[in-house]
Amino acid sequence: MKIIAHRGDSANFPENTPASWDGAYAAGAFAIETDIRLSRDGVCVCAHDPDLNRLFGRPEPVSELTLAELMELGNAQGGRIAPASEALAYARDGKAVLLDIKDETPEALAQLWQAIADAVSGPQRRLVFAGCHTLDAVRFFAVQGEVEILGFIPTPDDAVGFWVAGAKTIRLWERDASRERVAELRGLGADVWVTVGGRGTDFEVGGETSAANLTKLAKFGAGGVLVNDVKFAVETMEGLQ
C-alpha cells in the first residue's frame, strides 16, 4: 500500500513546504500531496485554506495577494507559501506528486496545466497526479493526456462517473472505504487511495490514523493512503510484510 504524504510530512514539518516534502520522501513516502490555488497575479501556489488566517493570522484570501506578497509570509513554525513549481520539481526528479486542485475554474486549470508543462518534461509528467473534484476538471486533464488523474469524488456514488471520465485513481475518505466499496472500484480497474481520519473515524483530523486502521485498509485492498505521519505509516506497513 503506497504512502502519500498529506500536505507533506505534516505531522513533523510545516504543511505544504519544501521541508515537509523533503521529509516525506526521506521517510519513505511514495508521493507528496499538496494543495493548489491561484495568487492574484495568476500563479499556482501551494495552500490548503482559502484564506491566510490559520497559518499567518491574516484575513485575506490567498487569491487577493500576488506571488511576491505570498512568498513574504512566514510564521514561527517555519510555515510559508511555496509556488507550485517547487512541488512539481520533485516530479522532474522522478518522484510522484499529487496536486489537490482547490480552484477548478477554467482559468485556474489552464494556469496549472501551463505550470506542469513548464516544470516537468513529457515522460516525467506521468508522475504528476491531477487531483480533481469535478468532472469538468477530470475531462480537462484527460484531454491533455500526459498526467495521471485522481478523483477527489464528492460522494461515493460519484466514483464510477469519475472513473469513466478518466480518473483512474479514486480517493475515498476512510469513513467510506468499506471492503465492499474498495472491491467494487478495484473491479472497474481503478486504484483506490484513502484519506485516513476525519469525520466518522476515530480521529477528527484528516490524515491522522492508527496501526490498526492502516492494517484494516491494507487488508481491504486500498492501493494508497494519505497520512500526516509518513514514518509511522511506513513502519506500520513494513510490519505487515
Automatic annotation (TrEMBL):
Pfam annotation, one family = GDPD
One Gene Ontology molecular-function label: phosphoric diester hydrolase activity
The Gene Ontology biological process annotation of the record reads: lipid metabolic process
Database matches in InterPro entries: GP_PDE_dom, PLC-like_Pdiesterase_TIM-brl
Question: Taking every annotated instance into account, which residue ranges of this chain make up the domain GP-PDE?
Answer: 1-237
Q: What is this protein called?
A: GP-PDE domain-containing protein
